Amino acid sequence: MPHLAVNGVRAKYGAHEVLRGISLSIEKGEIAALIGPSGSGKSTVLRALVGLTPITAGQVEIAGETIDYRNANAVRAARDRMAIVFQQFNLFQNMTVMKNVTLAPVKIKRRPKAEVEAEARRLLDLVGLGDKHASYPDQLSGGQQQRVAIARALALQPQILLLDEVTSALDPELVTEVLDTIRRLAREGMTMIIVSHEMAFVREVANKVVFMDRGEIIETGAPKEMFDNPKTDRARDFFGKILRH
Amino acid sequence: MDRLVEQIPRFFTATNMMMLAEAAYMTLAMTIVGCLIGFGLAFVLVYLRQTPGLWALPLRIVCVTYVEFFRRIPFLVIVYLVLFFIQALTPDASLFTIAVIAICLYSVAYTADIIRGGLESVPHTQVEAARTMNMSRFRTLIMVVLPQAWPVIIPPAIAFAVSFIKDTALVSQIGVFELTFRGKELNNQGYSGVLVFGTIALCYFILSFPLTLLGQHLEKRLATPRGQRSARKIRRT
What we know:
The structure holds 2 protein chains of 2 kinds. Chain A is an alpha/beta fold. Helix content of chain A is 40%, strand content 26%. Chain A has a 6-stranded mixed beta sheet, with helices on both faces. A 4-stranded antiparallel beta sheet of chain A has the order 2-1-4-5. The mean pLDDT of chain A is 93. Chain B has one domain (2-236): MetI-like (MetI-like fold, Orthogonal Bundle). Chain B is built from 10 helices and no strands. The longest helix of chain B is centred in the first third of the chain and has 36 residues, at 14-49. The relative contact order of chain B is 0.13. Chain A binds chain B through residues 50-52, 76, 79-80, 83-84, 86, 88, 90-94, 103-104, 107-108, 136, 138, 156, and chain B through 125-126, 128-135, 139, 143-144, 147-148, 225-226, 228-229.
């Protein structure tokens, strides 16, 4: 049984259909990378999974359980199992790093505060920011903020972690620190879906590469075969364009 | 002019000054009580107005209609409406209560738009992040949006209340013993209009100027995130 199964999912922004029947399945511990030109719907897949963009057709199953996104309780259950990290971090600007990480586990999941804070310290150590728990987001660099955002997502104890272009808003010298954090999670066996433009990184950490264009999945494969020998013209065309840079 | 100078010692008596001080207190009290209740109710109105979903459409229409309606009728008309409506319900309601209700109705409509603007100034991505953590709409508002919206809401809300101190002069029309009403009374007692209303004007200035300064001070304090933090620290100690 796949950890996450997406079957024929469609989504619209107004009249424009951004997802035109997406199907993919991800095993436990697998790392799937969504790649493709901008506007191809990669980020929308993640937004649909956490219920930020409504799904108009299709189904999603998490560990064999079908999630009905029209039902608010089911969406809450889906969000309990998946956590998302955004391109722009979206840390709460009015709270310290510690408060950002502990807020939802304490207030929403109602776990004991002392336990959550101990866990938060461990996670901040994991992302290399153990000394920053009392800082506010605007006192941190973009790379540090993004690592806090990853710690915040992990504190929710998700089964699946969704990373939406987490390095796109960062200065080049800050990208490495965030990628190192993701590598560490990959080694720990976290199931992840990564939307990324860092092709070398995708090739290194992903088990499965999904190429999307105009709201559809064009090709799926192991990173090596996909990058070295794409089967479809559109994928070949895309790799040709990005590799020329 | 001679008459005016001759009247000055007779005008500035303890009795008259006590009366003006009480009237000034009345003006300030009804503005503050009315605007504070109005401000609180405006939050409720904005929250209801932002209720998502098709089922809440009538609710949203009611909220929008309220704001648009009460912003487009003169305050004096609201005062008369409240007067006759309340007196029909309970004939012995005090004029002060009636004035406060009128001020509430009016300030809700104005501050609702100030509050809505403040809430909308917080990037929607903050709300989305909260939503994906299963935070409820109310909790997101209280814990995430409002703390970031205060710097945008507070300065114009205070500016509104301060300028409204003047507009409460209109409730003298229904006989509330506030500044302008007492001014008219003294004028009818034969004191020179220039003398009486000059003094009244000074009273309004003395009431509102310190509040303007307070507003400017808060605005500066709240302008930067760092300022917000120091404000928070001060509150904590």
